User: Fold these one by one.
Assistant:
Number 1:
Amino acid sequence: MRLNGSQILSKALHEEGVEVIFGIPGGTIMPLYDEMHKHPMRHLLVRHEQAAAHMADGYARVKRDVGVCMGTSGPGATNLVTGILNAHMDSSPIVAITVNVPSAMIGTDAFQEADISGITIPVTKQNYFVRHTRDLARIVKEAFYIARHGRPGPVHIDIPKDVLLNEADFVYPTAVDLPGFQPTFEGSLVQIRKAARLIERARRPVIIAGQGVLISQASAELLAFAEKTDIPVVNTLLGLSSFPQSHRLYNGWPGMHGYVYSSYSVDQADLVIGIGNRFDDRFCGKFSAFAPKAKIVHIDIDPAEIGKNVRVDVPIVGDVKRVLNKLTPEIGECESHDEWFEQIAEWKREFPLKQYPDDTPHLFTPQVINAITKATDGKAYIVADVGQHQMFAAQYYPFEEPGQFQTSGGLGTMGYSLPAAIGVQVARPDKEVWAIAGDGCFQMNLQELAVLIQDRVPVKIAVVNNGYLGMVRQWQQLFWEGNYQHVDLATGTPDFVKLAEAYAIPGWRVTKPSELNAAIAAARAHPGPALVEFCVYREENVFPMVPSGAALSEVIPDTPYVPAAIATPIPAAAPAAPAAPAPVHA
Amino acid sequence: MKHTLVATMADGPAVLNRVVSLFRQRGFAIDSLTIGKTHEQHVMRLTMVVDGSKTAVEQVIKQLYKVIEVRKVSDLTEDQTVERELALVKVTSKSTTLRTEILQMVDVYRGRVVDISTNSLTVEVTGPTDKIDSMISMLRPYGIKEMVRTGLVAMARGVMAGQEKGREALRLREVS
């Protein structure tokens, strides 16, 4: 069958089961858009390419399959880069397609030309520059294969415009020929047995469940493993929701803003079993002082993650699900962990998570998270942005179902939550999705409000407004002698409720705890997208905290919620709230 | 410690770029890097000398394996190997006496004079890196006008590297 490049690409995407594409057209990509509308694929028109990549990323994480985004040449392509890197850091399988200037003009600094394949080398798992139409089908096949298999990640395909217009014979390949890409799925039995013996003998073991558990869809296997061995489970930030938090073995999340007792349990453990995690610096604190008394078992599909940051005693390279299926039956009688559980319980009693009375003089973010939890019965899918509100969301929302929490973990990309939540909602139309963003983050991609309306995506948005780049302010307060430099956003911040209204989205504003429930209920009752702005106490800090470069044992516990006599006013940008929360726009 | 690594990879315009980008991005210290064709079609062979701790070199190998085109990486450091480097050195030699002296010295290193002019001569020498270093240090006093070195290429003795190192490579993938 003789087809042109656009037809080949569209057919190939169809063969790969692509149902949704996030993108925006431009000069060079027009042949593809012209062809694509003939195929039954949903296309969401973004307002900035960065958001297209984040949407594909959020979609991929929840769908557990490849998300596709595309953009035109030059600026269209470079705008995708942040989103691609975000996917790379968090092992999210996306395929990003860009169309470059025609082959004859490549390298001439033509209008809207960028060496985008040169640019994406360090931020992708693999990238392609397609020279001939005849290569296109093979490359698409490889791209999806690579994105999906082994440790997932982003793949970028750049296609000169003429390659889309030229014709070639089309046969979609059924297999790939990639001798250099052979991920190890089965863990070595020798290592698994070594791990099993360590597990049987451990008296103070801890399981670290990372995002690999979610990627491998191994939550049930993790549960079986933890229950059989009776070992407490801590999560990494990205691993949150891989283990039910109501379970007696759930032991919180340690690290920079994790719980004190979780950090202590990792610090004092005699055996750490890392499952699909990467011992990131925000999790471990000071690497040289990480779990000093522990033997370390590390299960991961990417050999390069093993021993990268912390020493490992038993490395197991393989897919988490398959390794756990082999490991659990290998384990015999374990030592009793009763004393260990008592110790952890004692830490838990001594360092509880900060609690807030209902009648505080100001509004605090944890109260917001708690109110959303209550309203949604803990069943919503939460997409947190980056900063203080992200840490509060991770600390206070009780995740039960795999995939319920998504956030930009590795890159910490401000502006992630709204577009990613759109991707999540598209992947799971049956779920209630909340994007939780700070005022700083929200302003980095708020143009995507348009997509909520245009493409009928009913995401609920919680803007946590403290009029600051809150986390930076916290660091300046704690580590830079309170010298606040360029963190004050209060002047210039728009009226978020009116802004939502400008996009035909209803909005509510909450300034005190007593208004929380009514506003959240009103937003939930609205059938489409809705926004609630929460004006919180400005100088609130996130604790517990392991200062950057410190060991987990040096975690600074919670402070009392905030002294009663707080003087700083709530952001001035917000006008007085209406007595009863009412939609500004119906 | 210096490690000699050999990687075979599918050829392609972006492969070398990807490998170099990886080194730059992760800050690996590379002493030399050579790339060229092999007896197999579309397979390139890269020899690199990396300076670093065992853990750092292990990380280099693992990261190289993440490059999709890379098929096999072997650390030849502790093996019996044939190692060669080529250097061209242009030395000042204004008088006949000096010229004779240089020629004698070059002969000791089994070098060859490949070009000669009124006030310089160009020497070609191949051998292990230390031999070349040694010859260069002997020539330096005469005045080196220009010099180029290819960087090291290496091969395990006896059985073909790929076959011999197969198990080793697999083991490294599994991580030691």
Number 2:
Amino acid sequence: MKRIIIDQEKCDGCKNCTVACMQAHRATPGTVYDLDLLDPKNEARHTIVANGKGGYFPIFCRHCSVPDCVGACMSGALCKDPVSGHVQYDESRCGTCFMCVMSCPYGNVKPDKVTHKRILKCDFCKDDTEGPNCVRVCPKKAIHVEEVSA
Amino acid sequence: MNESCYGCSTCASADKPLEGFIAKLPMETSHHRVESQETKCGFGLQGVCCRLCANGPCRITPESPRGICGATADVMVTRNLLRAVAAGSGCYIHVVENTALNLKNTALEKGKLKGLGALERLCKTFGVSGKDDHEKALNVANAVLEDLYKPEYVKMDLVEKMAYPPRFKVWKELGILPGGAKSEVFKGVVKCSTNLNSDPVNMLIDCLRLGISTGIYGLTLTNLLNDVLLGEPEIRMAPVGLRVIDPDYINIMITGHQHTMFVHLQERLIAPDVVAKAKAVGAKGFKLVGCTCVGQDLQLRGAHYTEIFNGHAGNNYTSEAILATGAIDAVLSEFNCTLPGIETVCDTLSIKQICIDDVAKKANAELKQFVFAERGKHSEEIIDAIIASYKERRPKVKLNLLPEHGYENNLTGVSEVSLKKFLGGNWKPLVDLIVSGDIKGVAGVVGCSSLVAGGHDVLTVALVKELIARDIIVLTAGCSSGGIENCGLMVPEAAELAGPKLKAVCKKLGIPPVLNFGPCLAIGRLEIVATELAETIGIDIPQLPLVLSAAQWLEEQALADGCFGLALGLPLHLGLPPFITGSKVATQVLTEDMKSLTGGQVIINADAKESADLLEKIIQEKRRALKI
């Protein structure tokens, strides 16, 4: 399976990945120029956190081999895709229990801030043949996609 | 020289022969760097990255809707925009200040004035006179300088004299009449500094005020003062492109906007003793090769410079290719657009760089700061340095010419005066063609050339083709002109690309469907044309079926020009937004609310066909309102 590999030493906190993620998942089509940066509906799926020493922790979904979020999901909204190996979310099956949020060891899965009824997590830009948008725009190559065993 | 190409990742150009030439160069140019800079910061693109204080950079996201200080996206965007407009205005005001000073010094020295018609018109407009031409020129120059140096709280005198009365009235009512032009720049940079103004609309109003001082002084008056000193444009045919480079001469590529600084040197370069010096080292003499706006301006006034000026080779992003021919022996620069990237090309090809105004000092250049009283001494030193460069470099540099590039017969020398003269002394023939619909409308395609929005001149040239196909005549000024002419749209045969009605008009008159007014400064000339057309019809400027496009605007100066267009009440198309879309207030005011303030509006679209549709629609609406 393909996974986003993080080299935190290289991250300079520019948040280009954040804008790219917002742009990739916006509800209405458009360019990066008209992406509403203030609209909570456009929240990015990952987080860049300062490490307190002048560097950053880029926190991206690991699409874990044995994902705790999937294990915790009682409704079957989260599943590890047997072909791609990516953990995908089916909003229609979500019971809003947020156990996935509680169980993600990386603190990556988060409730959405608008409806408080669904979660936001990385879908590996599954509909984009060129792969995750965040990776493509990272000027420091702090994140890259690598084939790993599932 | 390495024969292999540097890298095959150059950006596209509307000028395909040039694109091929650059892709094969054995050195890096700006065209090569587009790909490696492709990842743009989304916050920067939207204008919501603020680094005005040590708390920054602050960026706007759904989780962080304000900067640490509390600045909203609207505040960040308008502060950044005002800062850019103030800087751009400062650039043009620097140019007009030096131009007026050179006219003043020439008048005091009883030097040669080549454009007495322009001098008379300026005297009449300003209401000044003098016992002879030199005194008149002195009084004209002083009137401009006195206005430039007024404090911000004292309104400039010439605005009312230069402006179209209905426009002046609107500006007065809106409270956007500018005080001293230099002081307005000063106020602009103060206002957008850390923790000062936080009222987005108030800052946008300042942009308009800076637009007026930039437009009337930096653009319009710079042209007219240049006309007095350098001679007025005359309509004629001239060659463009890399073909103008003749390797048998010692070639000097000129870049900048301050043509009056070259006057003495230009005269000397064709003096018999200087030509003899060139011949002594094996050249036929000296030639100036036009590049950027100073080249456009010499092309415009080429009738006065046939001996020394060999033609305009290309715009800002053609400068590296011009140098890469190997046949340029020196670069003489005095302002932008002198790209930092030419330094490495000059190093590789041992090209001497000389700068005559330290505002544009290049790292590799020898600085010969222009001082009017010392220009004679400096001219000799510059000539000797360039001869030494020629002698040293020519035996070891291999030429890489492209003599088939460009076009031979381009219509040039078009100005508000020469065009009117061409039409028979008044604007009625053009107005009649507009009324009859033979010319649907007028589009000023102006400003810079950039390497984004499709690549080098890609959007500009595609848009021009779309417009002329819709019977909209195109008037150009700026580096856009350099790209459009190198793509063959300024030869009379380009009439074939126009719509049936415009094509018939062009063929009857023997003109191309795109008329070149020269440098970006000549946006001021286009605006005189707009004013005089409005005057002829008896309407205000926003009512004209006339649109502006700075499709590939590049720099801060273009933003200051654009603000003048908005103050005039014109629709202004931009290919890419000027880093404003992060602010709902700025976007709303500039694209919508401006219509009810000045009549102007910003239209943003990067697609040539869609942009032409939008501009055509505006032209049709204006026609309907005029019942034509």
